[in-house]
Structure formats: C-alpha cells, structure tokens
Amino acid sequence: MNHLFVDNLTVIDFAYLDPTRGLVGESWIADVVLGGELDEQGMVFDFSNVKRTIKRVIDERVDHRLVIPRGYQGLSWHEEQPDTFTWALTDGSQIIHRSPDEAIVWLSADRVVPSAVASLLEQEIKAVLPANVISVEINLREEEIDGAYYHYVHGLKKHLGNCQRIAHGHRSPIRIDRNGHRDYDLERQWAKLWRDIYVGSEEDVVRRHVGEDDVRYVTFEYEANQGEFALTLPEERVYMLDTDTTVELIAAHMADKLKVEFATDTIRVKAYEGVGKGAIAER
C-alpha cells in the first residue's frame, strides 16, 4: 500500500471538559497519513485537495468547539432545556453549559484524549475521500513549548465567526521581557495564575451566587449571531477582565498589571493564542 503524509496540516483550538481540571483550553496540531492505491495521476490523493477536503473536515468538526465525553458518569442533561447540561467535577462543584448544537462535539468516550478525537475525525474524513484511499491516520499533538504556558477558555460575543462560542480555548505560551531581558519568573507566575482558567468579561456576567454546595459561582450569558450562550462556573476557576477577552486585550491587561508592579521598567508581553499567533503589548 502507498502512503501520503502531511505534517502540520492545521491547528485546532478548542475546549473540553475534564472531571478534575474542569473546562480546559487546548491547541492540537494535526498531522495526517493517507494509505491507498495510486489513482490515474499516480497519487494516493492530490496535495492540492488536502486543505480543501481534509483540513476543512478537521476545522469544521472540532475547531472552536467544546468537546464533551458522553460516557462520563458526572454528565447530566436538563429535561426542561435539552440544550443545557451539567458537568459534575470531582471536587463536588459543577459546570453548567448552554449553547447551539454547532458549538459542541459529543465524543463517544469517558474522557477527552487525542486518540479518541482522532478516531472521530478519521471516520468522518474517510467518508469524503475517494475509494482508492483505504486508510486515514490522524495524529493530534501538542506544540513543544520551551517555557511557560497556560490553558485558557473564553468566548467573544462580538465576533462574527466561531470565536463567539462561549467555551472555546487555547494552549498558549507567554513571553515577558522586562527592560529588554526575558523574565522567566514572571512567565511562570502568569502561567500558574492562568492554569486551566476561564477568562471572562465583566459585561457578560448575569449572576453571582453561592450554590447548595457552598461554592461561589458566576454565570455568563450573551446572544450572538449563532444563538444564545450561557455558562456557569465556580468563581475560583474564572479570571475576570473589564474588557472583552481578545488576545490583544489579554496582552494589554497583562502588560498593564506588570507596569503597575514595575512602574519604572519597560515591559513587553507577547501573549500567544494557541500556536504561532497572538498579540504584543508594550508599556
């Protein structure tokens, strides 16, 4: 059998639910290997069609969505609101989510791991490829990061594309320079502060309350052009901004905070949004 491969085909930025970590932002790089017989052009599959076909399936199916493992025992649906579900965490708290169907992916597993998501994608990709393609192998992997990074989730209600979805996320490096020199300690401090965090906008908050489990919760709600979105989280898992949560405003927020702490120093923050993209703020 002949094989064709494409490394670094695309990056999927998404979020998923974990029993302990809660709402996790993630960025996975997708590599693909196709196996099959050669067609009349002497190819397994035309490279020019890889992005048009395979990348499109990967991006549309998982990118900027919330992946939910259907087999998790702590998952329950609301009978009165079928688009709403509750995710029970191992610490006794819970997460409640509501969104249009297009903002989520149901996974036939009890946990979200790369192999389970890859299996879902392989089945869907195989269905749209020509008959000479016999096998599809998807490898989903994290970027190798030399330094500090964090996982964050957010939603941008003003965005006209898929960023408007209330629970999508990223695994992101951060670089902080103080007076022209990289400050690894500050990078680690921010990475620790934003470990598995939801970055919320104050204007989207509709309620703060203490639940029956004595946990303090915050609820975000908004309407965007894809529909109505709502998310309730334990307050300790949320970092609030007074602005929207675009990466430009995130970088500016970090730089402003650091400038207050180091008033006489020159600060430069390079905040990533997933792999190979982001924003820079200088103060």
What does this structure look like?
The protein has 283 residues and is α+β, with helices and mostly antiparallel strands. Helices cover 19% and strands 44% of the residues.
Q: Bin the strand percentage.
A: 35-45%
Shape: globular
Distance between the termini: 57 Å
Q: Which sequence of SSEs, written as H and E, runs from N to C? A: EEHEEEEEHEEEEHEEEEEHEE
Could you describe the largest sheet, including whether it forms a barrel?
A: 7 strands, mixed
How many strands appear in the DSSP assignment?
Answer: 18
Uncertain stretches: none
Rg (CA only): 21 Å
- Helix fraction? 10-25%
Mean pLDDT: 96
Give the helix/strand class: alpha+beta
Quickly describe the structure.
By secondary structure, the chain is of the alpha+beta class. Helices cover 19% and strands 44% of the residues. It has helices at residues 47-61, 114-126, 184-193, 247-261; strands at 2-18, 22-36, 66-69, 75-77, 84-88, 94-98, 104-107, 133-141, 149-154, 168-178, 181-182, 197-201, 205-210, 216-224, 227-234, 238-241, 267-272, 278-282.
How would you describe this structure in keywords?
283 residues; alpha+beta; seven-stranded mixed sheet; six-stranded antiparallel sheet; globular
